């Protein structure tokens, strides 16, 4: 291209994204399968949502339309912001850092990346789902309302995408720098906690089945950026066309603000690690011997041998590697917030919570915690070659990894059980909680060892801890879901026993030790069986986790 | 040994004999299959056919014995780089089943010799390219292997570090060790190696002692001829 300062058209970014997506799948049958699975899953979800959102139109219910548009829109926008942080990661098919050397204006780059980000299954699903609101608007308010709603739906998509990009980009920049990681943790906690009040409100109000009481909050939400774009057409149908320009303004200002925020953090993402607070020395006594330096002070019981070295290295990595740390922090927040919310809303306010519910939520927490390991070898990348060359026995490798991870997760799980017990004011059920946690965590570890070996995939070498390659976005969520289902299945006996035993004092006393023992046995069996598989597949595993270059 | 990636043949049948005590250079242009060959020889990549022997031990049938004799510096030196140099060496030593006291003593010595002791508290991820190569080499040397397999040990290394690495490798071979390394830097190979193999398109094109391969010409001339390079006529790129 001649040096004229002319900026490329946005279609170029779209073509680039499509080309990269296609090339990623070329000759890789499993990636195509995963893509199709993702597409099917996305379509299934969005068609369901479409019917739900279109229902008020068919039943001729204006109130229903207000509720559907405000609450549906709000949930959608929140989902776009939170889910990438928590589960799926951001699709970095077009890594901003790759554009750093090109003479692109920031405005062009942001617009281009934004447009490119709208190509993909999530955006398609969101558009399809929210078009249910267009149907509702058309049935209730005629063509004018439908056209306004259509424009609003598109604006909503732009809002969703820019919000998700801005938040993840900002969050990634923060996590990269070790100094502000605590701040990042607090931010994430706040974001995740946003789910809480909404959930409590919705559940409490839905329980009373008094939809009129929801109308007020829904109308308020309709004026916030969360749902402003999605409620425009309904406003027209209700004869309040004057609201449309105001809501467009709310949406436009929000989008502009988000894009500005994104472009700020984008710059630091493009400059890459060079500016992100490098050259961090490990503040420690350098006179200590190398072996003493390797082993964390907090783990003096580790043997000074191969197993001990593996545990020590893993333990250091869970804290020093931004990607792993992101996994730990997100789990810490969700692990505390989610069970408290579920248990409190499912009757904690009125009185006692059945042991089965407590047990089930704890199983979910334990399983979710162990799922952090689902791609544990992917975190290592090609550095795993060191272990292959040294010929580490598979069982030793896996036992060490579980031990290191558990030194972080174990205390965390106990704290979660204590917090939930305190919230419910049911100290007697702490045994059931610990037992369910232990059983689910151990079972989850065993299942995720298997997943981490057979479902390992390479993470891109970028500084963004949430980055994943396209295709592996589906792979990642699919594998985590498979792991979650499998682990829950293995852990279910403890829930069944709890359901049968109810409040029997014997079980309240025995559940703790029995559940933990169950988990220990499951994890041990896992290292034994999967370790044997690993012994025969080390080179293949290394290849799977090495990024293509 | 043979290796295919999908339809792409990376290594199309290679038979290489590296004499014990030799300083062996594996030459080839980018994409010739050097890294693939070395990876298959040390047990990092499973060959589609064939195997590798290290001092009488089959790498793929008897990996434990063979790997104990091997020291490896993989390409791109992706190390566990969230550790400091000392921590990384301790990790590698213990991973090899060495006694902690020996690990401490050797690691300290290696860090001193390789001029990495000053960086003792910095994480390897923050090292310069040359320092990363040096600490990677230290990891490969720590357990005193009998065979060193180095992939591009002189790539992106400054002259001072390069000279240091050369000295250490010289001393290692003089002490009875064997070195095989890949490179496309002719001067280094010409200065160091006793034996040379030139690879292109997944096969060995020339092999033998350094003098056998180059004859009375320079190694670079032989290399360009074997690989089939082209020379610029001066006509193209006139706009530059």
Can you walk through the features of this model?
The complex is a heterodimer of chains A (549) and B (240). Chain A has 549 residues and is mainly α. Chain A has helices at 10-25, 29-58, 62-88, 106-117, 121-176, 181-208, 211-223, 228-237, 243-271, 290-294, 306-320, 322-348, 355-370, 376-380, 385-390, 394-424, 430-454, 472-501, 505-545, and strands at 90-91, 467-468. The radius of gyration of chain A is 25 Å and the shape is globular. Chain A is built from 19 helices and 2 strands. A two-stranded parallel ribbon of chain A has the order 1-2. With 240 residues, chain B is an alpha/beta fold. Chain B folds into 2 domains: 1-68 and 145-240, P-loop containing nucleotide triphosphate hydrolases (Rossmann fold), CATH 3.40.50.300; 70-144, no CATH class. Helices cover 38% and strands 19% of the residues of chain B. Chain B is built from 9 helices and 10 strands. Chain B has helices at 34-42, 63-68, 85-95, 100-113, 129-141, 159-174, 186-192, 210-214, 219-227; strands spanning 2-5, 8-12, 23-27, 53-54, 57-58, 70-73, 147-151, 178-183, 195-200, 203-209. Chain B has a 6-stranded mixed beta sheet with strand order 6-7-8-3-9-10, with helices on both faces. In chain B, a hairpin with a 2-residue loop joins strand 9 and strand 10 (203-209). In chain B, helix 3 (85-95) packs across helix 4 (100-113). The mean pLDDT of chain B is 87. Classes of the chains: A mainly alpha (549), B alpha/beta (240). The interface between A and B is large, with 45 and 45 residues.
């Amino acid at each position: 291209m001649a040096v004229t300062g002319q900026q490329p058209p946005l279609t170029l970014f779209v073509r680039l994204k499509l080309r990269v997506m296609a090339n990623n799948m070329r000759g890789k049958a499993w990636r195509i399968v995963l893509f199709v699975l993702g597409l099917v899953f996305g379509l299934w979800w969005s068609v369901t949502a479409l019917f739900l959102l279109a229902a008020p139109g068919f039943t001729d219910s204006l109130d229903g339309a207000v509720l559907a548009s405000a609450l549906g829109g709000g949930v959608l926008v929140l989902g776009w912001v939170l889910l990438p942080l928590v589960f799926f990661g951001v699709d970095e098919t077009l890594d901003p850092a790759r554009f750093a050397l090109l003479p692109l204006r920031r405005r062009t780059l942001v617009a281009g990346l934004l447009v490119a980000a709208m190509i993909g299954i999530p955006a398609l699903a969101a558009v399809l789902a929210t078009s249910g609101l267009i149907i509702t608007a058309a049935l209730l308010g005629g063509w004018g309302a439908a056209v306004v709603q259509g424009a609003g739906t598109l604006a909503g998509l732009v809002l969703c995408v820019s919000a998700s990009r801005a938040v993840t980009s900002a969050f990634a920049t923060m996590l990269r720098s070790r100094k502000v990681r605590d701040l990042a943790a607090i931010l994430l906690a706040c974001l995740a906690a946003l789910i809480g009040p909404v959930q409590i409100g919705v559940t409490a109000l839905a329980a009373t089945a008094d939809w009129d009481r929801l109308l007020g909050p829904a109308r308020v939400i309709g004026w916030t950026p969360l749902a402003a774009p999605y409620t425009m057409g309904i406003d027209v149908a209700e004869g309040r066309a004057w609201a449309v320009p105001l809501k467009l303004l709310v949406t436009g200002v929000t989008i502009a603000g988000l894009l500005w925020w994104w472009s700020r953090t984008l710059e630091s993402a493009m400059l890459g690690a060079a500016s992100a607070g490098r050259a961090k020395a490990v503040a420690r006594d350098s006179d200590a011997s190398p072996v003493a330096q390797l082993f964390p002070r907090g783990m003096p019981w580790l043997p000074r041998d191969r197993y001990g070295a593996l545990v020590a290295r893993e333990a250091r990595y869970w804290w020093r590697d931004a990607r792993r740390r992101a996994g730990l922090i997100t789990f810490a927040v969700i692990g505390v917030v989610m069970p408290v919310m579920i248990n409190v809303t499912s009757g904690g306010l009125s009185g006692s919570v059945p042991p089965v519910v407590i047990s089930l939520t704890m199983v979910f927490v334990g399983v979710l915690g162990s799922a952090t390991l689902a791609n544990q070898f992917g975190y290592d990348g090609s550095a795993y070659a060191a272990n292959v060359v040294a010929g580490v026995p598979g069982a030793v490798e896996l036992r060490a990894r579980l031990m290191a991870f558990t030194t972080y997760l174990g205390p965390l799980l106990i704290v979660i059980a204590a917090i939930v017990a305190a919230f419910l004011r049911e100290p007697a059920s702490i045994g059931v909680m610990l037992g369910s946690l232990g059983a689910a965590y151990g079972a989850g570890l065993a299942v995720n060892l298997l997943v981490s070996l057979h479902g390992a995939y390479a993470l891109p070498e970028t500084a963004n801890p949430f980055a994943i390659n396209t295709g592996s976005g589906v792979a990642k969520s699919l594998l985590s879901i498979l792991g979650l289902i499998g682990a829950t299945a293995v852990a279910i006996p403890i829930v069944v026993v709890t359901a049968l035993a109810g409040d029997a004092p014997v079980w309240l006393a025995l559940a703790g030790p029995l559940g933990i023992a169950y988990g220990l046995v499951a994890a041990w069996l896992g290292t034994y069986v999967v370790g044997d598989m690993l012994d025969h597949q080390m080179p293949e595993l290394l290849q799977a986790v090495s990024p293509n270059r | 040994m043979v290796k295919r990636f999908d339809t792409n043949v990376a290594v199309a049948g290679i038979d290489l004999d590296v004499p014990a005590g030799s300083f062996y250079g594996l030459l080839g242009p980018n994409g010739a299959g050097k890294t693939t060959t070395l990876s298959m020889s040390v047990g990092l990549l499973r060959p589609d056919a064939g195997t590798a022997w290290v001092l009488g031990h089959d790498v793929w049938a008897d990996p434990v014995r063979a790997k104990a004799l091997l020291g490896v510096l993989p390409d791109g030196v992706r190390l566990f780089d969230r550790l400091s140099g000392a921590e990384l060496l301790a990790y590698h030593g213990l991973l090899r089943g060495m006694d902690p006291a020996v690990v401490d003593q050797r690691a300290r010595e290696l860090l001193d010799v390789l001029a990495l002791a000053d960086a003792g508290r910095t994480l390897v991820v923050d090292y310069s390219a040359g320092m990363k190569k040096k600490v990677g080499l230290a990891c490969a040397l720590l357990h005193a292997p009998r065979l060193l397999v180095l992939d591009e040990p002189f790539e992106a290394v400054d002259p001072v570090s390069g000279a240091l690495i050369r000295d250490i490798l010289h001393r290692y071979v003089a002490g009875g060790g064997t070195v095989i390394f890949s490179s496309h830097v002719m001067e280094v190979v010409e200065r160091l190696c006793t034996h040379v193999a030139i690879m292109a398109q997944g096969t060995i094109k020339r092999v033998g002692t350094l003098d056998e391969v180059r004859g009375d010409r320079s190694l670079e001339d032989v290399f360009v001829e074997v690989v089939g390079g082209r020379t610029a006529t001066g006509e193209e790129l006139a706009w530059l």
